[in-house]
Amino acid sequence: MRFDSARSMVFQAYRVVGNSVMAGAIEQAQLGADVQRSRRQGNDWAIVHGLEAGAVISAVESLPMHLQAMCRYCWGPFTRDELAEDAEWLHVALCRAMTGQRLPGQGDNQYPPTKAWHTLTALAWAAIYHHGEVTYPYNRQGLVGPRAIKRWLEDERGTTIDVRRWNATARLSWSDTWRQLTTILDQWEAQALAPVAELIPRAA
Description:
Blueprint: H1 6-15, H2 20-30, H3 35-41, H4 45-61, H5 65-75, H6 84-97, H7 114-134, H8 146-157, H9 174-197
């Protein structure tokens, strides 16, 4: 494995899971095998790579479920269909993280109106997709601006939201909510990658 970045390590680790030569080594690493010693002593690099991959996967699977889901969704070598369950986990967690945050149109009410909650849940899907696009391995532009977000939701989720008042002066707007969602995902990314980054060998 190339220990170039935590994101890349997650991608590489899950990519080698299906390799039967590495499967036993991955299991050993998940059970606590000494990867550093194996790297020094091992002659079979397939096994060494399997041990390394197993250590990465073990680090990922020690995380809370929504952070595990984020690792696989954002940096794993999987199709969107394969990631459906992880996307659901991440979406539910993101909506829960926004519980208690005031939404546009809520006013002084304790709970947001149904339409506002519908918009929040839709924006959460868009924010998750956006985060996966702008980070490794894609490094794409993502969803830039309300029109792109609205179009993606209509095309991919069959959902329509009103973005005519995306920005509002001196009052809460949906652009504020979007920033909250993307900030939460940025924070979760740091938490998810921290234990993987600890596996990167330090220079002597």
